[in-house]
Design a protein that fits this description.
The structure holds two protein chains of two kinds.
Chain A: H1 2-28, H2 34-44, H3 51-60, H4 67-81, E1 86-87, E2 92-93, H5 94-129, H6 134-148, H7 151-165, H8 185-222, H9 225-232, H10 237-243, H11 245-249, H12 251-255, H13 257-266, H14 269-274, H15 280-289, H16 293-321, H17 323-332
Antiparallel strand pairs in A: 1-2
Helix pairs in contact in A: 1-16, 5-6, 5-8, 5-13, 6-8, 7-8, 13-16, 15-16, 16-17
Chain B: H1 8-14, H2 56-63, H3 70-73, E1 79-80, E2 93-98, H4 108-111, E3 116-118, E4 126-128, E5 131-136, E6 142-147, H5 161-172, E7 197-202, E8 205-209, H6 217-221, H7 236-239, H8 249-258, H9 264-272, E9 296-300, E10 307-311, E11 317-318, E12 330-335, H10 339-347, E13 353-354, H11 364-370, E14 376-378, E15 381-384, E16 389-393, H12 406-413, H13 415-423, H14 427-434, E17 440-441, H15 455-459, H16 466-475, E18 496-501, H17 510-523, E19 527-532, H18 535-543, E20 549-553, H19 581-588, H20 602-616, H21 620-636, E21 641-642, E22 644-649, E23 652-654, E24 657-658, E25 666-668, E26 683-684
Parallel strand pairs in B: 1-11, 2-12, 15-25, 18-19, 18-20
Antiparallel strand pairs in B: 3-4, 5-6, 6-8, 7-8, 9-10, 10-12, 13-23, 14-23, 15-22, 16-20, 16-21, 17-22, 24-26
Classes of the chains: A mainly alpha, B alpha+beta.
Chain lengths: 333, 690
């Protein structure tokens, strides 16, 4: 098992290296760079910036060096001192920009994860057991709505409903009066009053997928003979279902943890923008629009690493849960 | 005295409302009520109350001795802002929004303090502001400028000619910090390569001398803020701590290293930001306050993007009763992600001022619908910004492979072509369908209230006449059509024509306007389409000549800015809009023989000459005459295609806010939003917002 983990980790290194190159290429792809953006803005205010000055600034920011030099400088700082560079747009180190938002981003996504899994897994099992019942149709209906409606639209609709019909203030994470204050109990309660909306939206989007997957695999398993055997041995229906088919049917859900880490980080981007939350999503979006290359690069790189870690995590979880995989992997190793 | 010098006396003649006079201030001495007589038509008695009242917000600090009393904070000759609806009351916070984390353009709307100012009554007369007075020599070459004695930055440090000298000598003409200083201090009427001579006469007087007459200089100064690009003044005591001439190199290296930077130049630049620091709120401002002269100064950024400003205790303006301005205590700018979030905030009564960058006629019904129940009032102003979409057919066209497209260039430069495109557009339909019929449609021209305006500029080639359009195109040899009814070019290919536009970046209406316009052009046998690209790509393609036609919003259409920046009318710039970025590049190039430059035709060069004369002449009437010569030419042969001559700008304010600009005031980039209208004198009736 240890060998398996080490081998798996070793494979991640070239993977992440490739991701970092890819991230760097992606941020270089659009025409121009941050400096051109800034000069455009400057020109828009009526300033005439001539070629000589542009050249001086290009030199100063090192943007005239060949791409591979820029790349190695960038990745070198990240590897040696976890320094993701400087955000031209926010005028501060990328680390600060992302770190200050990371907590809230993960918090929201984690709550959404708990809500969606906590709700979806029991429901998925239930609707499989009670196939074609009213509950099955009801949750299928809800699930398909969640699956078919993009998060941002759901956000807009819910915002409208809660503002226009329920008369609740929406948007943002805090009420304006609390925003400048340090964290306090009152501020925390205010946060909770704002948080339910993004959490609900993100949870609904994830829920449908899990309900449908679980329902399908459960239905496959329920018809198998070992279930009948278990039942014939006189186990209670609850025991039959939880100890046998569920343990197998849960595998596809566990393998979704590959995406989970990355999703915790970025799953809510569009919803966060629509809801005007001060989290990491809108930062990435701005960074890409304004060609704030180091912020965008850090973001893409972190996402890549989280995917790699996520797939490692899901492999390990599967191995832990499912002996077939565990032994298969050990034989292969 | 030269007759062309604008004296205070002239100013008072035109402006019966904004009164700029001298109020006796007593520095340390209790003042006796002084009837300050102001010349001519305006007779206002300014009674300075005994011991000027202290703004309540500052009383505790003054009592505790942390702040000197108001008399000591004001300059000897504070600027008096009169002509408002009422003397205000102190207090209150104004909540606003901005869309950009650092370069917060929304803050200029309220907080731009310029070296000189335009009267907000006629928007034509230049009046004193940070500079107390200026005098131009008869030949128009040298300016003697007086600053206010005892005026201070927001940190209490005095403002003197050292702040001018440092800015010019140690920033602009330091070759490490600037490869090429702003042209306004090396203006010579030719290639602009002769530095102006600065002579510091005393702590409060200096003289700038040019080798050629530079009549437009005071007008330029109405655009300059301390520390901005361009400007000639900034807080030198602040900058010096990052400058290697004033701070030990070893210490600078250490500071640079601590900030993760490599050189002192980078360190300096970060704090000067190519002069944009005034609208920029990078993280360092939290620990290192940036001294300003504007009504409010930044005091906190509790979280990123959230900007809190407080009254500048050293602000140099007072009201007619001698009370120190501003009336409003705080400004607060929330960073939001989308325009929809702005609407939501407005509807939830969370905004007290929705400025130029945030309003559009497209949302007018939404504002009006929510106005009765909301805490805001919707104003009836005239826009010199976003909604003024103008189509700019490019006049020099290259193919995608980078070779000149002679066939298209010949078509684009034919005088009939732009005319035909223009008269093919049904402007009334655009007005009815997109602007609820509220705009006055017309050609690209100065605003009708401008002294440059003539009726024919607004109407030339702005009628809707499809037959005329077809006739004009037929006449220029585009009379053969293919089976689909598309006109054929000389090379036998159908005439395809793409409007490339930067979408919402230009204005909320832009994508819709372009769709409509493309449809009108298809009706006259041009295979026109509209395509949205990002601004950076658009600029790159404009500079390569690969764009057929683009759209930008035409600000710079009032007397405040039009004489200084003519780029929407004649091609003097690269990127965004204008008749041709390639001609603009030629115009801006220092070396006209450089490779790759495209020389414009004589007619365009004639416009450049007239523009140069506008810059140099000291005589305002002459300047207008030169300008009108340009507009006469453009009315004859248009370069751009305007749609809206005069459109509304429905700004919103809190219902309690008073001393606001009057109805039909011009609002936009030209006025720096509210800033021209003295927001330091706005106040909440009752001292709090609704």
């Amino acid at each position: 098992m240890l060998n398996y983990i080490i081998g798996r980790l070793a494979r991640m290194i070239p993977q992440i290296f490739l991701v970092s190159i890819l991230a760097f290429i992606i941020i270089q792809l659009p025409p121009g760079d941050f400096l051109t953006e800034q000069i455009n803005r400057l020109r828009a205010t009526g300033a005439t910036v001539d070629e000589a000055e542009i050249q001086r600034l290009t030199n100063m920011y090192g943007l005239d060096q060949p791409m591979y030099v820029q790349y190695f400088r960038w990745i070198g700082n990240i590897v040696t001192r976890l320094d993701f560079g400087y955000s031209f747009l926010w005028q501060r180190p990328v680390n600060d920009v992302l770190l200050s938002r990371m907590g809230m981003t993960f918090f929201i996504a984690f709550l959404a994860f708990v809500v969606s899994w906590g709700f979806a897994i029991p429901v998925g099992i239930y609707v499989a057991v009670k196939q074609y019942s009213f509950a099955d149709y009801f949750f299928t209906f809800i699930g398909f709505i969640g699956l078919a409606t993009p998060g941002f639209l759901l956000a807009l609709v819910l915002m409208y409903v809660s503002y226009a019909i329920l008369g609740i203030r929406v948007g943002g994470l805090f009420s304006p009066e609390f925003e400048p204050q340090p964290m306090s109990w009152a501020k925390f309660m205010d946060l909770l009053a704002h948080l339910w909306l993004p959490v609900l939206i993100l949870a609904i989007a994830g829920m449908a997928n899990i309900i449908r997957t679980l329902r399908a695999t459960m239905l496959d398993e329920l018809r198998k003979q070992y279930v009948t055997v278990a039942r014939s041995k006189g186990l209670s229906e609850f025991q039959v279902i939880m100890q046998y088919p569920v343990r197998i049917a849960i595998n596809p859900i566990i393998s979704q943890t590959t995406y989970l880490l990355a999703w915790l980080f970025s799953g809510g981007t569009v919803v966060e923008i629509v809801l005007n939350l001060n989290t990491a999503g809108p930062v990435l979006w701005r960074a890409l629009l304004q060609q704030d290359m180091y912020t965008a690069g850090a973001y893409i790189l972190i996402l890549g690493v989280l995917y790699s870690l996520g797939s490692l995590l899901s492999d390990l979880l599967l191995a832990a849960i499912d002996p077939r995989i565990r032994f298969g992997a050990m034989e292969a190793a | 005295m030269d007759k062309r010098k604008i004296s205070r006396r002239d100013f008072l003649k035109v402006s019966a409302v904004t009164i700029v006079g001298t109020v006796a201030t007593a520095c340390g001495v209790a003042p006796t009520p002084t009837p300050a007589t102001i010349e001519k038509e305006v007779q206002v008695t300014v009674v300075v109350p005994k011991g000027r009242s202290e703004p309540p917000m500052l009383q505790a600090k003054v009592a505790a001795g942390e702040l000197p009393p108001v008399d000591e904070r004001l300059p000897g000759t504070p600027l008096v802002v009169g002509g408002r609806d009422a003397i205000g009351v102190y207090g209150g916070e104004v909540r606003m929004i901005h869309f950009d984390p650092v370069w917060s353009v929304s803050t200029y709307d309220w907080n731009s303090e310029r070296l000189l100012h335009y009267s907000d009554i006629d928007l034509r007369t230049i009046v004193p502001n940070i500079f107390e007075s200026w005098e131009v020599s008869p030949d128009g070459k040298s300016y003697t400028i007086k600053m206010r004695k005892g005026m201070k930055f927001s940190d209490g440090q005095p403002l003197t000619t050292e702040d001018v000298r440092f800015y010019i000598e140690d920033i602009w003409f330091n070759t490490d910090l600037n490869a090429s200083p702003m042209w306004q201090i090396r203006f010579d009427g030719k290639g602009n390569n002769t530095p102006a001579t600065l002579e510091v006469i005393d702590d409060f007087t200096f003289k700038l001398t040019y080798v050629a007459p530079f009549g437009a200089l005071p007008a330029h100064m109405t655009r300059w803020e301390p520390g901005n690009w361009p400007s000639i003044l900034g807080p030198s005591h602040f900058y010096k701590q990052f400058h290697n001439k004033y701070t030990d190199q070893a210490k600078l290296d250490e500071m640079a290293k601590a900030a993760n930077l490599e050189t002192w130049v980078q360190l300096f630049n970060r704090h000067w930001q190519w002069g944009m620091a005034v609208w920029q709120f990078p993280a360092w401002q939290k620990d290192t306050p940036y001294p300003v002269l504007s009504p409010w100064h930044l005091i906190d950024m509790p979280q990123e993007g959230l900007i809190i400003m407080e009254r500048n205790p050293y602000y140099f303006k007072v009201d007619l009763e001698g009370n120190q301005l501003p009336y409003l205590d705080n400004l607060r700018f929330d960073y939001i992600t989308t325009t929809d979030a702005a609407k939501l905030k407005l509807a939830q009564n969370e905004l007290d001022s929705l400025g130029m960058h945030d309003v559009t006629m497209a949302e007018y019904p939404f504002y009006k619908e929510n106005e009765p129940a909301g805490n805001f009032q919707v104003m009836d102003y005239i826009s010199c910004m976003s909604d003024r979409n103008v189509l700019f057919p490019q006049h020099v066209i290259y193919k995608e492979d980078g070779t000149p497209d002679d066939v298209m260039t010949e078509i684009a430069q034919h005088p009939n072509f732009v005319k035909a495109l223009s008269v093919a557009i049904d402007r009334d339909e655009i007005n009815q369908s997109l602007l609820f019929g509220t705009a006055r449609m017309g050609q690209l021209a100065p605003l009708p209230s401008s002294k440059y305006y003539k009726e024919k500029y607004g109407t030339a080639w702005a009628q809707f006449d499809v037959d005329l359009a077809n006739q004009l195109l037929d006449e220029m040899g585009l009379d053969k059509k293919n089976a689909q009814g598309i006109r054929l070019k000389k090379d036998g290919q159908p005439l395809t024509y793409v409007i490339e536009q930067a979408g919402l970046r230009v204005g909320p209406l832009t994508p819709k306007v372009c769709e409509l316009v493309a449809a009108y052009w298809r009706d006259i046998g041009i295979d026109a389409t509209s395509k949205e690209v990002t601004e950076t790509l658009l600029n790159e393609r404009l500079n390569n000549g690969q764009v057929h036609c683009t759209v930008w919003h035409a600000d710079r259409c009032t007397d405040l800015l039009l004489p200084l920046e003519m780029e929407w009318f004649i091609p003097t710039r690269q990127g965004q809009g204008g008749a041709s970025s390639l001609w603009g590049r030629w115009f801006l190039a220092a070396d006209k023989t450089a490779e790759g430059l495209v020389e414009p035709p004589d007619q365009i060069k004639k416009y450049y000459d007239l523009f140069a004369k506008m810059t140099s002449t000291v005589d305002e009437d002459e300047r207008v005459k030169f300008g009108q010569e340009i507009f006469d030419g453009l009315a004859e042969t248009p370069l751009g295609i305007g749609l809206i001559l005069e459109g509304p700008a429905p700004l919103t304010y809190n219902k309690n806010m008073r001393n606001l600009p009057r109805p039909r005031a011009i609002m936009g980039w030209d006025t720096y939003g509210n800033s021209t209208y003295h927001p330091e004198a706005y106040f909440y009736e009752g001292g709090t917002r609704a």
